[in-house]
Amino acid sequence: MVFEVGATYTRDDVQTLLNVPEAQRGGNWDTGYNRYDSQLFVFCNVGSAGRTGHDYQNEWVGDQLVWFAKTGTHIGQPLMRLMTLGEIPVHVFWRANSRHPFTYQGLAQSIEVKDASPVRFRWSFAQPPASVVRDDPVVSSLATEADALGTTIAGMAAAIQQRIKRSAEPQEGFHPNRTGPEFSELVEGLRRQWHRQNGLCSLCERPIPLAPKNRLLQMSPDRIDSANKAYAADNVHLTHLGCNLAKSSANMADWDDYLSVVRAQP
User: Are 201 and 240 in contact (CB under 8 A)?
Assistant: First the structure.
């Protein structure tokens, strides 16, 4: 990691160290937090209002930070869900005076979440991560969903590994070799893809349910370029099994043509 715990940085320093393209600077970087490269960067004032006048009552409780998300946030929003479940790295930069640079506190671990608006988090910076308090029924429900997602993705990764292994074994007929990353890397890649797609099928753009009774609705990894036999991160998206079977070896242009026909009004 390019940041040193205890060192001070301005927002511009952080963007420079991350090599953020000029066209992507500013905007949310100048507010309380910004998501970039599958990570979250939080800039917060503690014990004082920010330059915009917002004062979210952030405070230190011992070595833990009580932090409030932006006005209007709620636990059901995708980013709040990721933070609640620890599915996205959260880097915290804080300061006690809005005229000073921020101090890098490190990677935050959510240990308590209050389903309010704005959402309130209690963060620890100790390693290994502490358990999240799940007394709130909404948080508990999200935790159950995370368990279901983990089980589904692990099963898909194992199935992909089996396809790769079988493709290297002698078989009758033509069976092209398939390739892909190691199991742990594959799991992480599929998990990130799920969040990039916000839980939607990449082919029909409808929600993918976890553990559905109808097997055609279950999650399925699809190679974007069917001619490319690699299960690389840039060649895999997540779909319904039914959509994947329907697309088969067609390219995305052909699939889009098909979808426009079946969705057309009679």
Answer: yes
